[in-house]
Write a structure and sequence with these properties.
alpha/beta; 6-stranded mixed sheet; 23 helices; 29 strands; globular; binds beta-D-glucopyranose
């Protein structure tokens, strides 16, 4: 009897323990049990998942999501940024370093007009994200270049939404191939840094739909990012992070986004409104946000469905992450291999703006006088969260020497000493010198004349740096400083007198004024901020080892005020009124120019520019064949054959613009609708490029009907080497089509 009882007890105990084990097992998050986990979560656990937390898994990472150990929900790691992973390069207790590759900045990548190249770059970048134990890269940044002074333009792509959207989609695909996520940011209308936390961007629905949201729409649909980051600013009176119409109706219902939305790094007071609007994750996360959400759940201000909806999305995100999957990251990505990718990307993207009498390429054996402080302190990337902690940024002195040029050593030493003195002052004063306002040393005319005799050519490197938190200024930033101007004038005069050429390298993070001085120099190369290896690419272009094939992703105006947005950008207000009283463009910004941004304005109104959108020279020439344009049931397909008619191998970007039939909405005279880049064509070689444009892509936004409308009639299809250099045209008839969307974005006048 005793034995039987004992056996029964044993069986009972075993049964209990295996039951508990089963429960335990089902209570661990798996890819296929998100709903079960959701049901098992307490309210406190749910809320904790919606608010970021502190962590130390990856020093230097920008943020974390919280762990719930009981349910096997791991912490996940979020880190910046667009030009490469931004983490701390050194850690306590180890000699190991954690440097990342500084890839070319987004503006340079966009200058490649080559989505495949971008995807290759970000495939390498994403590998660093994975191997350093990060789950989501907080990039790409993709606000539009509405105005040249926005301090973060280098983190963004273009003034055109199609180019911007295609680049961002490719960026996302490359990163996510590695099994890590991206965060497309800053959604939306974060087009200035002045008062970026509070500025109210007042934008018409047409400009929003056709420009400021269009690039995001393309990136979301074609890239499928895991996450989106809402911006700090307001849009038509409401913080974007609290705007249900933006974060739910447009982003999810209309565009089909199924990932999570996180705030930019600061949650507004209306945390509850943010959660309800569809902002799933509050970053970087504070206790007060947890308290507010908990109170709202208890009071019923947030319904159980709303809470579960956001938590479900968080769980669906978490099961995709390397941390969830237990990926054993190495902390040893192949930085050498990635440096090669970074260099190649810069080579394929750098723009040649001017090349009088074939000044470039140089022979490679010249003795070069290299001018400018930036030749030593080269800007690979910008500042702020878009910066990358690289081991080294190659400068122009190093790159030119490695490329085989002989440098004027006295001059090179002079600049090294100036830079060392500045760095010593920095150290002594304990704070970094603001490089936005660093002053070039002046060199006497006598010295320049001597240098002109001693050297074969002058290469002048001009630099501009900017970054998060501040916009640029017109004086001494968009425009040259008086010292730079004087230096250029003296170099131009002395070298030309000696029968020698002057080349300028623009190592700049945003558009500058070029019209007043470009005639002084023979050639201008524009590498933007080209990443840690970019200076090598510049040297290879100067030498002709690489034939430039980049084109401008925005317009270079003659004067700053030529930009229609300039009247409604902080600088104008500062300049004319000072910051007193009501502060337009600080408290709020009226996007009064509507859709007339960049080339859409300049081209339509025949306003002269310094360099047009889509412009870039090559060391060879190309001919375009007669194009074919064939309507199909969804739009049209265009083909064109490009032939290299010059003497060296090169690549050409063909830009397809469309002029819509008149009648109906007022429209730009031409708009970019597709583009394609040839492979490297040997002299005499041809390639046929195919570009597809859908009827939806041809549509404009009619506010009255809250609908995209493709007008019926004959469309002119223009094939250009830039927006103002159209090589051939064709026509195509389209039927009227329309797509109604929700009228939920508010009104600038409300
Ligand atoms: C920036 C974001 C960045 C975040 C985290 C914010 O201030 O606007 O772009 O991803 O900080 O560093």
């Amino acid at each position: 009897m005793k034995k039987t009882c004992f056996t029964i007890l044993l069986c009972f105990a075993w049964g209990l323990s295996s039951y508990a084990q089963t429960i335990q097992q089902t209570l661990t998050l798996r890819e296929d049990n998100v709903e079960e986990i959701l049901n098992a979560m307490t309210i406190e656990e749910k809320v904790s998942l919606l608010v970021g937390g502190l962590g130390s898994l990856v020093p230097g990472a920008a943020g974390y999501t919280r762990e719930i150990e009981r349910l096997g929900i791991p912490m996940t790691v979020l880190a910046d940024g667009p030009a490469g992973l931004r983490i701390q390069p050194k850690r306590e207790g180890t000699d190991q370093t954690f440097y990342c590759t500084g890839f070319p900045t987004s503006t340079l990548l966009a200058s490649s007009w080559d989505p495949e190249l971008v995807e290759t770059v970000t495939t390498a970048m994403g590998n660093e994200v994975l191997e350093y134990g990060v789950d989501v890269l907080l990039a790409p940044g993709m606000n539009l270049h509405r105005n040249p002074l926005c301090g973060r333009n280098f983190e963004y792509y273009s003034e055109d939404p199609l180019l911007s959207g295609k680049m961002a989609a490719a960026y996302v695909r490359g990163i996510q191939k590695n099994g890590v996520g991206t965060s497309v940011k800053h959604f939306a209308a974060n087009n200035q840094e002045t008062n970026r936390l509070e500025n109210d961007a007042r934008i018409s629905n047409r400009a929003l739909r056709e420009l400021y949201l269009k690039n995001f729409e393309i990136a979301i649909k074609e890239g499928k990012p895991w996450t989106v980051m809402s911006s700090y600013n307001k849009l038509n009176g409401e913080y974007t992070q609290q705007k249900h119409g933006l974060l739910t109706t447009v982003l999810r219902d209309e565009w089909g986004f199924d990932g999570i939305v996180m705030t930019d790094w600061g949650v507004k007071d209306g945390t509850v409104k943010s959660a309800k609007a569809g902002n799933d994750l509050m970053e970087p996360g504070r206790q007060v946000e947890i308290d507010r959400l908990l109170a709202a759940v208890n009071e019923g201000t947030i319904s159980q469905e709303e809470l579960d909806r956001n938590v479900r999305r968080m769980l669906q995100y978490i099961v995709k992450t390397p941390h969830f999957k237990g990926y054993k990251f190495s902390n040893k990505p192949d930085l050498k291999a990635h440096a090669v990718v970074a260099r190649k990307a810069a080579e394929e993207s750098i723009i040649l703006l001017r090349n009088e009498c074939n000044t470039l390429p140089l022979k490679g054996s010249e003795k070069v006088a290299l001018y400018g402080l930036t030749s030593v302190d080269f800007f690979g990337i910008g500042t702020g969260s878009g910066e990358v902690n690289t081991k080294h940024i190659v400068n122009m002195q190093e790159a030119m020497t490695e490329a085989g040029f002989t440098l004027d050593e006295n001059l090179a030493e002079f600049y090294r000493t100036c830079y060392a003195t500045q760095s010593a002052t920095e150290k002594m004063e304990g704070s970094a010198i603001d490089k936005r306002h660093r002053s070039e040393p002046l060199i006497s005319v006598k010295a320049i004349e001597r240098q002109a005799k001693d050297n074969d050519v002058a290469v002048v490197v001009l630099g501009r740096i900017a970054g998060e938190g501040a916009d640029r200024a017109v004086k001494d930033d968009f425009e040259l400083t008086s010292i730079e101007r004087e230096l250029l004038q003296n170099i131009s005069m002395s070298y030309h007198k000696a029968g020698k050429k002057v080349v300028v390298v623009l190592n700049i993070v945003g558009v500058i004024e070029t019209a007043s001085w470009k005639h002084l120099v023979d050639a201008i190369v524009l590498p933007w901020a080209p990443g840690q290896e970019g200076a090598h690419a510049v040297a290879d272009i100067l030498k002709g080892k690489v034939n430039p094939s980049g084109k401008l992703p925005m317009t270079f105006p003659i004067n700053y005020m030529d930009m229609p947005s300039s009247k409604n950008f902080p600088y104008y207000w500062d300049m004319t009124k000072g910051r007193k009283g009501e502060r337009p463009n600080v408290d709020y910004t009226d996007y009064a120019e509507g859709i007339w941004v960049g080339y859409r304005y300049f081209q339509t109104n025949n306003v002269e520019v310094s360099y047009p959108f889509g412009y870039g020279l090559s060391y060879t020439t190309f001919s375009y064949s007669k194009p074919k344009v064939k309507a199909d049931k969804d739009g049209f397909v265009a083909t064109i054959t490009v032939t290299n008619t010059g003497k060296v191998a090169g690549r050409e970007v063909v830009e397809l613009y469309v002029a819509t039939p008149s009648g109906g909405l007022e429209k730009p005279s031409r708009e970019l609708k597709a583009f394609a880049k040839t492979k490297l064509l040997a002299p005499g070689e041809s390639e046929t490029l195919t570009m597809k444009v859908s009827a939806y892509e041809l549509a404009s936004f009619n506010e009255e009907h809250s609908a995209w409308e493709t007008a019926a009639g004959t469309y002119e299809v223009l094939f250009g080497s830039s927006v103002s250099d159209i090589r051939c045209t064709a026509t195509c008839k389209m039927k009227a089509r329309s797509w109604e969307v929700h009228d939920v974005l508010g009104n600038p006048k409300e």
